[in-house]
Structures are given as C-alpha cells and as structure tokens.
C-alpha cells in the first residue's frame, strides 16, 4: 500500500512539473514571436542551417539618400552560422557619386556579411564586368566595398572598340574609373576602330600596369 501511495505521489509530481514546463515553454515561444514581429530579421537567429531560401533575390544599399549598390538573383540561400548567402545568376550594380553604374554578372555569387553590412562578394563562373564602355571577362571576381574595388584574380580579358587587353589579373577602381592590369599583359589593337573611338569626348577609364 505504501509503495502504491509513493507511486501516485511521484506521478502527481511529474505531471505537475510537466504542466509548469509546458507553461514556461509557451511563454518563451510567445515572447520570441513578439520579438520576430517587431524585427523580422530576428527570425534568422532561429533558423536551422540553410533554412532560409529566397526566390527573386534583391538587396540594395542606400547611403545619404544615394544608392551605392544593388544585387539581384534568381534565388538565394542564407547560411546563418557562416553569415553568408549564395545567390544563383547574380546581377550586381555599383553606382558612383555621379550615378553612373558598373554591372557585374556571373553564375554564382557568395556574399559575406559583417553586422548586416556587406563585407565582401565573390562571383564565379562566366563573370562579365561592364564598365565605362569596356567589357571585362574572367572566371572570378571579388567586390570589396571598403575599397570600392572589383578584383579579377585570375586571367581576365578587357574588350572595347579597337582594343583587347589580357592580364593574369585585373583591378577596377570604381570611383576613380581606373583599370589596372597585373602581370603577363598582352595587347591587341585595331587602328581603324581606335581612330573612331578617339573622336568621342566622353571620359573613359584609365589604365595602369
């Protein structure tokens, strides 16, 4: 009889604790839902790895009322622990202080975030940069926001009317409108096309070695 009473008492204690635990869990969940409603980005902190999948991806940075850059993609996956996102078929636009743009496209982009700011973006596969009337092609490109710079770290080719330049790597200074070719530079010129281009008065990017 005493054993039965102890068993009943133990079951009552377990059920009581279970009820308290349920109420506590319910309260915690309600608080978290209120936090997420106030700040939707808070939801990222509760997602499992690669749980956030987005179609028709679009992000932009506005600074002092001016658009600095924006990126579009067919779709994207956000990775919480690494603080990065992988974007398919990215189209990236950088806008200088005069509103002129440089466009970069590729097969895949990986963006790295630091305190919700873009720290770096890497593009791979079929990379094409359209800049000041020139087209730069390569397999890779890296955008560095802190320097307003696009780096093409592998073999890159620059094409325009009457000129084709190739280098082991290139650097594009977006604000200063400069293109720097590094190592093993090769040049191919077409004089007739160059003569036509020189008649235009629009300032273009300058080159450096």
Descriptive labels:
about 210 residues; alpha+beta; 2 domains; single chain; elongated; six-stranded antiparallel β-barrel; 15 strands; lipopolysaccharide transport protein A fold; about 20% helix
Q: How is the topology of this model organized?
A:
Layout: H1 2-38, E1 52-63, E2 66-79, E3 84-88, E4 91-95, E5 101-105, E6 108-114, E7 117-131, E8 134-144, E9 149-152, E10 156-160, E11 163-167, E12 169-173, E13 178-182, E14 186-189, H2 191-198, E15 206-208
Parallel strand pairs: 13-15
Antiparallel strand pairs: 1-2, 2-3, 2-4, 3-6, 4-5, 5-7, 6-7, 7-8, 8-9, 8-10, 9-12, 10-11, 11-14, 12-13
General description of the model:
- The protein is α+β, with helices and mostly antiparallel strands.
- It has two domains: 2-43; 48-208, Lipopolysaccharide (LPS) transport protein A like domain (lipopolysaccharide transport protein A fold, Sandwich).
- Helices cover 22% and strands 50% of the residues.
- It has helices at residues 2-38, 191-198, and strands spanning 52-63, 66-79, 84-88, 91-95, 101-105, 108-114, 117-131, 134-144, 149-152, 156-160, 163-167, 169-173, 178-182, 186-189, 206-208.
- The chain has a six-stranded antiparallel barrel with strand order 2-3-6-7-5-4.
- A hairpin with a 4-residue loop joins strand 2 (66-79) and strand 3.
- The protein is elongated.
Summarize the structure.
This protein has 209 residues and is α+β, with helices and mostly antiparallel strands. The protein contains 2 helices and 15 strands.
Query: End-to-end distance, in Å?
Result: 95 Å
Shape, per Cα inertia axes: elongated
Number of strands: 15
Per DSSP, the total helix count is: 2
What does the oligomeric state look like here? single chain
- Widest sheet: strand ordering: 2-3-6-7-5-4
When the domains are counted, the total is 2
CATH topology of the largest domain: lipopolysaccharide transport protein A fold
Tell me what portion of residues adopts beta-strand conformation: over 45%
Instruction: Give the CATH H-level superfamily of the largest domain.
Output: Lipopolysaccharide (LPS) transport protein A like domain
- What's the helix-strand series? HEEEEEEEEEEEEEEHE
Q: Please identify the structural class as seen in this structure.
A: alpha+beta
Q: Averaging pLDDT over every residue, what do you get?
A: 78
CATH architecture of the largest domain: Sandwich
- Which stretches are poorly predicted, pLDDT < 50 over at least 5 residues? none
């Amino acid at each position: 009889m005493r054993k039965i009473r102890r068993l009943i008492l133990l079951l009552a204690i377990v059920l009581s604790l279970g009820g308290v635990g349920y109420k506590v869990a319910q309260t915690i969940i309600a608080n978290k839902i209120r936090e997420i409603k106030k700040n939707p980005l808070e939801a990222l902190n509760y997602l499992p790895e690669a749980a956030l999948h987005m179609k028709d991806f679009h992000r932009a940075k506005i600074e002092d009322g001016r658009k600095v850059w924006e990126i579009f993609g067919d779709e994207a996956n956000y990775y919480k622990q690494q603080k990065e996102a992988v974007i398919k078929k990215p189209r990236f636009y950088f806008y200088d202080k005069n509103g002129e743009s440089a466009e970069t496209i590729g097969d895949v982009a990986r963006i790295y975030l630091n305190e919700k700011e873009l720290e770096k973006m890497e593009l791979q596969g079929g990379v094409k940069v359209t800049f000041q009337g020139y087209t730069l092609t390569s397999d890779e490109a890296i955008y560095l926001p802190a320097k307003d710079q696009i780096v093409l770290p592998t073999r890159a080719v620059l094409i325009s009317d009457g000129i084709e330049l190739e280098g082991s790597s290139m650097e594009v200074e977006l604000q200063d409108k400069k293109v720097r070719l590094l190592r093993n530079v090769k040049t191919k010129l077409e004089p007739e096309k160059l003569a036509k281009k020189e008649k235009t008065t629009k300032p273009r990017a300058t080159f450096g070695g």
